[in-house]
Amino acid sequence: MPKAVGEAQGRISGRIIIEQLIRNMDLGQFEMGYSILAPCIFSLYLHPDDYARLTGVFDLIREDAKKALAGRLAQMNAKPLGGMPLGFGALRGAKDRKPYKIACKDWAFEFFPDSEGAVPLGDVEIHSELNETPQPGYHGTKTTLLDREPSVGSITGRTGGVRPETRQSPTATSSGDRVYAEIRYEDDSGPQLYLMTRDEISVGRGGDGAQVSLALYTNDEVSREHLRMRHDPAQNRFAIVDQSMNGTWLNGKRLARGVEETLPAKAQISVAEVITLQFEARP
Predict the structure, then answer these.
(1) Which of 44, 146, 226, 264 has its CA 20 to 30 A from that of 127?
(2) Handedness of CA 147, 72, 110, 127 (dihedral sign)
């Protein structure tokens, strides 16, 4: 995983944060057939003291960061291929070169105080994504200012933009929503914790128009929308329904496709025998 080289120069500033955003964008690019995507969603984790000190200028940092990243994107699209001199060859190279772009309508930045003790004073850890709804295979990257391995979320599996619930406290989200259940699992992006705050969620790989609440980074044995879970607030009970080609197992028993079954308060759910979800209802 890419990590920064260098040391923080005194107290972290807006300029340093913007420089690190540009660096993260450069490292997190994703090449496709006819274009290259750059990250556009950024989650920035700061030491609590740095977060408190900079809270009043976050909007100004966002404004400047948008200008800086847009300028960097324009610079990458304008740069001649391989530094070749101007002339017919350069024109042909520019025509063949893949354009850089972002998948979002605009850049997005969210700042968070590190509650895990992972980010030192004077550092910034940046997690980026390529789209507003990250899909398997389409990742940004994680970078730090200091020479250390990005580690925010190594226990809870927090990631920027993908699973907003995983940044919440164990009892409630930042908006005060009640947590009905927690789902622990490990996919290709590492250990994860998802907090269920809605009465119905969908689980799967997502992509190609399939919007899922919980996107699993894994192979195509898992369907784009593999299963759904439902919470009945009146009786405080849960239900699950399989919608896949390769099956869902509830505590070792395969579910009939399209048939809703009762989901126990504590259960093990096997998704296509590829990923196991540890489900536990909250009282």
Answers:
(1) 226
(2) negative
Q: Which residues pair with 263 in a beta bridge?
A: 238
CATH for 14-144 (1.25.40, 3.40.50, 3.30.2320, 3.80.10): 3.30.2320
Report pLDDT digits (tens) over 180-199: 999 999 887 778 888 899 99
DSSP label of 249: E
Domain 164-281 indexed as CATH 3.40.50.1820: no
Identity (one letter) of the amino acid at 196?
M
Distance CA 104, CA 195 (A): 25
Angle at 157 between CA 156 and CA 162, to 5 degrees: 130
Distance in angstroms (rounded) separating the CA atoms of residues 225 and 215: 9
pTM surpassing 0.85?
no
How confident is the model over 48-105, as pLDDT tens digits?
999 999 999 999 999 999 999 999 999 999 865 444 444 444 444 455 678 999 988 8
Contact (CB, 8 A) for 125 and 144: yes
